[in-house]
Amino acid sequence: MLLNRESAGKRWKTRPDGPAKVTGSLSYLTDLSVPGMLHGKVLRSLYPHARIMAISIDEALKAPGVAAVLTHRDVPGLNGFGIVTPDQPVFCSEVVRYTGDAIAAIAAETVEQALYALSLIQVDYEPLPVVTDPEKALLEDAPQLHPGGNMLHRTDYSRGEPEQAFEDCAYVTEGIYYTPRQMHAYMETEGGLFVPEESGRLTVYAATQHGFKDRMQLSRILAMPEEQIRIVSSPIGGSFGGKDELNVQPYGALLALATGKPVKIHNSRRESVTAGLKRHPMKLTMKTGMDRDGKLLAHEVKIVADTGAYSTLGGPVLNFATEHSIGPYRIPHVSVKGVSVFTNNGVSGEFRGFGGNQSIFALESQLDRLAAAAGMDPWVLRRINLRERDDPGPLGQTVLPSEGPEQVWRSVAASPIWLRKEQMDRGEIKTPPSPWLKRGVGAAMTMHGSGLGYGIPDPGGGRLGLSADGKLEAAFSFEEFGQGITATLEIMLTEMLGCHRDDLRIVIGDTDRTPHNGSSTASRSTTVAYMALKDLVPRISEILCRIASLAAGLPASELQTGPGGVWHKVAAGGYKKRDKKTASPLITYAELAAAAGEAIQLEADFHFPVTPDPVVGGHYLYTATAAAVEVEVNLLTGAVSVLDQYHAVAAGPVVNPMGYVGQIEGGSVMAQGFALFEDVCFSEGVPRTMNFDTYLIPGICDISPGFHIDAIQELPQDDPYGPRGIGEVGSVVLAPAITAAVHHAVGISIGKLPISREELSGILPDLLAEKVGTP
Amino acid sequence: MAVHYGKRTVKVAEPSTLYEAWRLKQEGGAGAVYVAGGTLLRTQWENGAATAPSLIIGLDGVMEYRSIVLNANKGAIVIGALTSLEEIRRSPVVAAHVPILIKAVSAIAAPSIRRLATLGGNIASLSGDAVTALLVLDAELTLFRGGPGLEKVLLKDWLEGGECVRGSGALVLEVVIPIVQDIPAFSAIPASQGADDIGAGSDSANGMASAVQDEFRSFGFFEKLGRREAFTPSVVTVAAMGRLGEKGSFAKVKMTAGGGAALPHRLYEAERFLNGRRVGPSSLAELHTLIMEGCASAGDLFASTDYRKEVAANLLTARLWELLKG
Ligand SMILES: Cc1cc2nc3c(=O)[nH]c(=O)nc-3n(C[C@H](O)[C@H](O)[C@H](O)COP(=O)(O)OP(=O)(O)OC[C@H]3O[C@@H](n4cnc5c(N)ncnc54)[C@H](O)[C@@H]3O)c2cc1C
């Protein structure tokens, strides 16, 4: 189904947080202020790699308005954080490894006083050689950044005998691909409010994508029981993976506890760029071969990921890149070797697509090059090699049967953009009037894993009940960072319970008020919510109807939940036809709550669906996606414009049409930035693009006027998991589709993103001489 | 090695007369800065491209230089230095007489910034995108340098003369743009020009007899290449104005290039080559080479010097090719 406002009809629902966001009245956590609060600032390193010889805070302590100056001496618990391995110091004591490393933090009455006091802290550094190239970092004589050396993680997967199989190939292509250090570029920079409560507890109002994980990490740092810490983490002004790891929370929490006063911290954009996470730049070397008929035989991959100074999720990102470098294709002989390497280039970490973006760009480009070498249609080549319904996953693991790859393949093959390509190839389409404008069409596809993968705890669940004040209350440990989870929950609940949106209270992003059902990451939340509600809704309905049955003297089997309360089934059925004002429930939710005497709370608890095979990081659920784009290359400048795009997504039933469109559109804009503009430039370990005047992301004028989404909803019969996540898939195949389209337009193969205009531009007189002759 | 952060205090002065502004600047030296819209300075301070000043000299008090006046007697449009780029963009007078300036200011930054940013600031920054257009328009500046009167200097001389012409603390007060009769918009429009105009071709060393009997029409254009479609710093800016005869000969052509940190400049060799010449495909190639040679670009992280030169030459030659094609 082409998914848009028209086709969604009545299900095109204004999101609950929409009006407040559009009018600017919504208060984010970084907008919070309380009387008497202090302002925190963090002193970060001046060098990408240096030894700290001395830190003197005496002058800063004497500065006006200063309430606390903290360093490594003031961390009561573990002086480190990191979701997997806590190797990033809260405060550095001996060595700094990137320019975002923290050395001290100050709380003062005003931001200006805090900044002034920062300037009085004296740090003596001894600069050390800077490690900027991950391949050189692996050489023996490279300076070592961590006690365990410069290698964070290695992956090694193989099946068959690729080396031998290459000898049987009729076509072999070898390519090297480079991907950029993309920045999340969320509107709201990191920050929050940290409040020491009279009870001795600490409340943290700060963005994260996993409140319970922050609670655990802070408890380690503060040496404070987890229950003493409350994390309120929603709403968030954008995250895209960038706020999943701790950022300013350790400093806010330590300063609040040290001063006994609420402390606010809010990064400037500069601080955010310096200290924040980025997408892993990767170098992917691929050798891929096929036989005369276009059947893939062998595929060899080497991945080198620049993980920057600390671990965070560098390991799992490499696992994901490894898995997704094989794709939805049947390839008998495969070898993938990956390595994630420490450098002084900032810190790389989680980012929408999670390592898939890099691998998929390289793999899809390889297939296009093979097709070109064999003179085949690139889309036909994919069809020949496409996996089938019951095939194992990319790493040979058992996966849920899926027809997604074939569905999205067919969708693109029949799309207007792809048909236009065929017309272009037959010379049936008029070329633009200016001889320097060249058009082309390209496409790419993948299947993208959801959930954290085998071997990683991935709890799911949720809570649903009737509160004492008569609200249907649903609680999940998710965060709203713009992806629309609150709208999705609201739509699921109103559709499943038949209730009105005003009957609901949705509680998210608060460790005190929600059960622990995992993170808002890895395209997992929608599936978790669906699975939980599929369990909880019948249970709560049954309880509510039973109470209503007692009160109304009707059999429970004749009752059902509806708008405002529990209805007689006949009345509920006739509700639409009759005058809405006279129709009313038998008993309202408030009356039910009073009759129940106490709040009703039901919990669901399960693990996110996972493959039974012990393949670490391997996925069980996938969303298939494919995209076709038309581009125009201006050879005067090398600029690439995206004219039209078509996305096919096989993610099961569409729960929230507007949210679905928003996710695919938003993801694709990010992918366009990845393909055409974005890269945080570093020189000698120092970031050079410090704000949005030099780090350019696509603007509205860069976005294609045409944007079409085919939402493929059909799942195999008896599929138990319902809607799949779509938070990432919009961002993973557009870049290779764009480079394929550029190749179609001008015949140049792109190996490095963002596309260099200098590689595409030509010399006008040459262009004119070749193509048009005398004016 | 020890690192200290210093404490800074910034004073703000709001002079109400030119002389006072001038005096504050002379007394304050390098630490004293004129601020108009403050949009460029703000980013320079934040990026560390300029050290934060000790004295901000606000120019808002000198409000008389915030206007756009058509001076029919002098055949010129006079724009006050404190006029915002957005005011210029919306000015019917500018649209009617110097449309390429509209095109240039419309391509600068975004609406919120254009409302603060001034034309004077764009010019004083030397590398502003509007300068490329103003240069091809033969704009003249009115300056105040502490003397008893105001001074006039051609924008071209002001840019080319270096610090010794611009001096320290010169206040830009007005931009005077001569209106050339029937100099048109972004694209060529026909004009009935007699043989009298052809004299212009004679300043070319290559003046050709064939040009003399031609029917001429005027043209003018401005192009900017940024790193994305809108709200972007420039990589390359180019502008051209001149006349093109029916038979393909050029006259009175002026061309400029700028962009990025480069100082916008005239492309004299390329102009000389074109003026009075009838242009065919081979001369377009020669012209392209001359433009590249005449182009002084500054490479940075995002675009190399050679690329900028090539794009400048491409954009100019492509537009001329389109004109020739008609
Ligand atoms: C996000 C952003 C995007 C931008 N994009 C562009 C762009 O696309 N193209 C472009 O050209 N510019 C761009 N700029 C730069 C800037 O906005 C413009 O150059 C603007 O015209 C500067 O005017 P202003 O009044 O703000 O100058 P200010 O910042 O106030 O001053 C700039 C300089 O000129 C001096 N000055 C100002 N007025 C006078 C005067 N009357 N006499 C003498 N000296 C004076 C100041 O001392 C200072 O050195 C951008 C700036 C920002 C922040």
UniProtKB/TrEMBL annotation, chain A:
Domain Aldehyde oxidase/xanthine dehydrogenase a/b hammerhead: 23-129
Residue ranges, annotated region (Disordered): 1-20
Pfam families: Ald_Xan_dh_C (PF01315), MoCoBD_1 (PF02738), MoCoBD_2 (PF20256)
GO molecular function: iron ion binding; oxidoreductase activity
Residues spanning the signal sequence: none
Record's protein name: Xanthine dehydrogenase subunit D
Species per Swiss-Prot/TrEMBL record: Paenibacillus oryzae
Lineage of the species this protein comes from: Bacteria, Bacillati, Bacillota, Bacilli, Bacillales
Automatic annotation (TrEMBL), chain B:
Residue ranges of every copy of the FAD-binding PCMH-type domain listed in the record: 5-182
Entries under InterPro entries matching the protein: CO_DH_flav_C (IPR005107), CO_DH_flav_C_dom_sf (IPR036683), Diverse_Substr_Oxidored (IPR051312), FAD-bd_PCMH (IPR016166), FAD-bd_PCMH-like_sf (IPR036318), FAD-bd_PCMH_sub2 (IPR016169), Mopterin_DH_FAD-bd (IPR002346)
PROSITE patterns, sorted: FAD_PCMH
One Pfam family per UniProt: CO_deh_flav_C
Keyword entries, A-Z: FAD, Flavoprotein, Oxidoreductase
GO molecular-function terms, A-Z: FAD binding; oxidoreductase activity
Keyword Endoplasmic reticulum: no
Record protein name field: FAD-binding PCMH-type domain-containing protein
